[in-house]
């Protein structure tokens, strides 16, 4: 919609956005240029600095902008062609040619030189081929250049695809999308006939998208990603670009609103001034045309006047009336009396009724008995004049009706003098004015003042009716020399302010976002360090707790922790009056294994025994290694009346134990004590169970004895 209502503003927004993105591409390449394997990025940095410079020249010289006064549509189109050729050839070279370090500086110097030579060829040398001709459209050079750009970009895309193993998948995707959009945009730029056309607008939008995807492809590079600035803030850079675009859109929209308001004010002023000119000019012409009435009155008062009387009367009238080149009387239609005889000698004797060019108008004057205005016409005696001709009728008898045709009174208004009058000259100096005379009777439709463009594309029009003809006054607005922008927004300084403020906003916002990233990184690092410290301390505490509560060899509850658990369980049993059974167990034959196979094998046997003991009890039971080959267990909520659990333990321990391919057998003796039957404290229950264990040893081992 903006492209249709105000293409210049639309173009400025799009081009400024594109220049900003080109600057970001250049910045991304510059940040990664120190990397030995990042040469394409360094080349792209230089390439897009040159492209941004030429694009900025294109935007500022665009037809209708404040900086393009009098340039026309060709120079900005030439800048556009130069920028696209430099960009396309540069992309093809970067992505096709395998650069080595020693060639990079030569490439950059050649790139800068070509850019500067191209800009100078456009302005001020003006030797660059024409790209756009007003009234005709694009030149063959412009169209063929766009197709050349498409070809070079296609080569760059082929180069990326050819070396696809060298690019991450996401980067290659963005680059290929960018190249495809660029080719589509360039095709659009071959289809427009007006610099304000829809194809031109579509091409600019597609190219903006193309630059964005190219930027995304650049920041997806591993070298850029390794750089802290881009690795931390790819999204923030996008936010900065969007913020700048929004700011530029708002600022340019404000200028557009201000411009619209000024146009309304100017239109009101133009209307007042043009109407004032029309009224003044109408009054001036009307006063001149009424001289035919004076001539008629002269004839009626002195029908038999002499040449001297006519000359005296006419000279007296001419002294008081400017812009009149001649007064004439034509009895019976034949010009007989004229002023300034020397100049108008050729008109004397001319028969108006027989002149094919004048016959229609004079007959119409006779038929209508009114003044007929003809012209402006080229006179027989030379020069151009607006001719007012009125028929004169005399009464047949004194006091009777005027029925007898006497002839014509004619007034010749000097067109050159009238159009050079002070009022028209002053107006034409300040405003673009054209005047078209239209006379259906005389078949006149001529532009008598001003240029064709003002007449064809007026801002305002008004008409002056002159009897049978009319004058159309057209105004195209105030001339540049008289255009005074009282508002800062409408001045050329506003664009400079806009560029500076955009740069300040971009830098400030980026620093704010970067600061937030650094703070967030510091907080994350501190948090991570704190978490690691907490985890370390938890591990130390867990280790200390495990050392304090678990047996190192078997992982079972140790003796110290057993006493804590046993006392806690005893308190619970006393409170709820619940019985429980305490087993005191000792391995049979374990000393022989230690003596025969060594302590290492003995330790493995203890681990297997611990696993088998754990498998025989519930999770709510308490099982602990009491020391050496002794184990204790508390079975809550039961007095184990038939002592089935002990039989399970004896059977589990009695199964062969295979260590390093050797099958070993041991047994287990168990002494049992029941709370509260055999004791009311942990210590007393242990003593009773220990005594029962010794009895089991004396009875032959591998059995259970209850206290």
UniProtKB/TrEMBL annotation:
Top-level taxon: Bacteria
Matching SMART domains: CHASE, GGDEF
SUPFAM superfamilies: Nucleotide cyclase
Cofactor section: Mg(2+)
GO molecular function: catalytic activity
Record carries keyword Transport: no
Main location group: membrane
Keywords: Membrane, Transmembrane, Transmembrane helix
CHASE domain segment(s): 331-428
The UniProt record lists the keyword NADP: no
Matches recorded under Pfam families: CHASE, GGDEF, MASE3
Protein name: Diguanylate cyclase
Species assigned in the record: Vibrio fluvialis PG41
